[in-house]
Amino acid sequence: MEPILTSSPRDNDVTERTPLVLKSKASTLHSSASSYKSVSSPVEAYHVRVGSPFRDSQPEISPTPPSPNEDVLYLDDDIERTEMQMLTITNLFFDSCLSGDAFQAQRLIESVNDQNDVQTMITSIHPKYHMNALSLTSFYDQPLVMRCLLDLNFAKDFVNSNAGIERHGATALMLVQSVPCAVMLLQSGASVYCQNSTGMTPLHYAASSGHAGITSLLLDFGADPNCIDHRGATALHWAVYEGFQYTAMLLVGHGADMSVQDTQGQTPLMIASALNDAFLVKQLVLEGSPLHLCDRKGRTAMMIATQASNRECIHALITGANDR
């Protein structure tokens, strides 16, 4: 199976992004994962084979604004651009998107007379970050430059454009890092139904990174909580696997089907049981998650928790079933 991207844009911020619950490191929920590898845990099914949509080949530090002395180009409106000049303008345009320089970005757009050249410049893929201009402003949270791009009269033609194959064709809405930028994209026609090359939707991305605000926004705009990717996983599978409890319960509250089984036959409850997330196990059981479904190896959630010696989850499964 084709691996997907595996690096969070902010490596030191892996906690769930919601002000409503105490932050708890997602890594604590993975403490038992290594002990479960011998029985083919969901960790193997999700992390070893595919990982997380944001982790992989990301820059270790945020890009810094380019030095004003790096490139000098006089932007005269009345001259015809050569191929080399257009390449220079495109590189400067990428720099302005990365640094959030909306004035420079607007100036560079206005310096190109041909609308086709402007569209080519905006949809070009950055050779290092493998994203187009709109995706760069989305991923690095540059709302001023994003507003500049979306105000163009042909914005609808590129608002759902794809990033490079290294990013599995993700759209700007999949890579968005803040609610204000997500609102701008949605109001400009970004689709909540589009899928990347691995079948993931913007809701999968938001849930797997713990963006509770963006998750709620996408659901309000009609995102399907039960849409599956090519592994058969829903957004709830990803939220549970990454340990984002609030986001997981938010999805359940919006009608996420807890009985959906992925290609390995795993339900969100099985994944929570494997990762010893007793809180999520009990909450999922209380909300009606089926207890007797089996994965492809014939194991129920209780059997998975027992094989992994996850006593807290065993207790949560029993008490949750009794409290229904």
Automatic annotation (TrEMBL):
Gene3D superfamilies, alphabetized: Ankyrin repeat-containing domain
Keywords recorded for this protein, A-Z: ANK repeat, Repeat
Repeat positions for ANK: 198-230, 231-263, 264-296
Species whose genome carries this gene: Aphanomyces stellatus
InterPro entries cross-referenced by the UniProt entry: Ankyrin_rpt (IPR002110), Ankyrin_rpt-contain_sf (IPR036770), Dendritic_Spine_Reg/Scaffold (IPR050889)
One Pfam match: Ank_2
Protein name per its UniProtKB record: Aste57867_937 protein
Keyword Repeat included in the entry's annotation: yes
PANTHER family in UniProt: PROTEIN VAPYRIN, ROLLING PEBBLES, ISOFORM B
Gene from which the chain derives: Aste57867_937
PROSITE patterns: ANK_REP_REGION, ANK_REPEAT
UniProt keyword annotation of Zinc-finger present: no
